[in-house]
Write a structure and sequence with these properties.
Helices cover 59% and strands 0% of the residues. It is mostly helical and 92 residues long. The relative contact order is 0.19.
Length: 92
Amino acid sequence: MTDLARIIGALEDSSAEGAQALAAARLGFLEWVFAAPGPVTAHMARDALGTQAARAAQSAAARAFVGCLREASLPGPTSGARRSGRRGRWLN
């Protein structure tokens, strides 16, 4: 069983609702990230969303975990042209 399926399976067994379900999902997401053999990318999150385990998520905690995967699957900010002026500058 893959780490993803194991994590979702454990979240499916959870009766947590609301904030507790979200907290459990975030912990599961961190476990998934740290179990990865290298850097986790948006592409990896999209692949995870395509698995049967993610598509079949039922419990509140498992659905929240899938939500974490959806957020991680979004493309990051681009390195396109920046606006000039104080308000348009990056902080780093």
